[in-house]
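[job 4471] stage=fold_predict status=RUNNING
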Amino acid sequence: MKDNQIPKATAKRLPLYYRYLRILNNAGKKKVSSTELSEAVQVDSATIRRDFSYFGELGKRGYGYDVQDLMQFFAKTLNDDQMTNVALVGVGNLGSALLKYKFHQSNSIRVSAAFDVNDDIVGRIVDGIPVYPMSDMKEQIEIQQIDIAILTVPAQKSQDVVNTLVDAGIKGILNFTPARITAPEGVLIQNVDLTNELQTLIYFLHSNQPSFDETTED
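[job 4471] inference complete, writing C-alpha cells
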C-alpha cells in the first residue's frame, strides 16, 4: 500500500515499533510476537497486526516476526538507512535545547546547520553545530541538501521564515511556534504545540474522562 494511503495514526506508531525492534536486535533476540511487542510499546496486538498489514506479509502465523528482517524493513520505510540533514531556525531557549538533544534515537537524523539573527550567536559552533546568519539560510540549505527544517522562531516572524525556507527548497517543517503557518502543496508541516499538549493533559487530569494518545486512534 502506498504511503499516502496509510492512516496517520499508523504512521506515527512506526518509529515506536522501529525503536523497540532495534533494542531487541541489539539484545540478540531473533523473533518477536505481536503480543510481546504489544506489552513493550503499550499498543494492543490487534492494532499492531493491522498496522503491519498495510505493508503486506511481514510475519508468519505461529512464528511471529523476524526481528532483524522487520527492523531492516522499518529502517528502509522510515528512511533510517540514509542520512537526513535538518536545519534548525531560531537558536533561542527551545532551539538551543533541541540542538543539545542530538536525536539520539536515530543515527540517521542530523541537525547540520542552525540559523539565527542574534549577532552574539551567529558565527559560533553550538553543541557541534554551526550557526549561520539568516541571510545565509537559502544558500546553506541548497549546499547541504537539507529537506527538513525545525522552526523555533518568534510566532510573528514564522510565516516570513517559512516562505524563505520554501523558496530554498525545504519540503518538511516541524513547527514549534504557536502560529499556524501555511505552505504550498507538497510541503509538509507538522505542528508541535507544547502549551496545547500541557493544557490537554491538565484537562484530562481534572476531568472524569480517561486521557488518550492520538497515536492509538485511527
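[job 4471] summary: Residues 37 and 106 are 20 Å apart (CA to CA).
[job 4471] exit 0
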